[in-house]
Amino acid sequence: MNNNKTVQRVVKTSIIAALYAAITIALAPISYGPIQFRVSEIMVLLAFFDPFYIVGLSIGCFIANILGPNGLMDIIFGTFATFISVYAISITEKFVKNKRASLIIASLWPTICNGIIIGWMLYYIYQLPLLLSIGEVAIGEFIVVTVVGVPVIKLIQNKYEKLLLNL
Q1: Per CATH, which fold does 2-166 belong to?
Q2: Does the keyword Transmembrane apply (predicted)?
């Protein structure tokens, strides 16, 4: 029985990683570069419901960045930024007592982490002004994860709560 559970977890992790990578690559023109709207980042909010998703999301980001245009720096720093973001998302509920506010607060971690880490990386790669790079990435993350992602996740949570917990 324990073996079966391990296989299920590996399969679920692989599916999450594949979805993240596929969405990112399919939308490559808006997923990479100085101004980016990585739609797959909506999925990082899954870590709010179960830290199990951290691995799949980080692997998905790693794969997407291997196939992306920004090379080794994005593979390292992009994956690191996603890992830090999803980890922070997964522990937010422990520190925020207001359940309604905790998802919104959790959704801000990608804006902060990716804004700083990816903003710095893009500043370095493209020689753009640092604050402009940080701001562009942060705005893209905020729009995708907080403005779009939170309502999408709330809709899924309200209609299909068991789905989020049983993925």
Answers
A1: Arp2/3 complex 21 kDa subunit ARPC3 (1.10.1760)
A2: yes
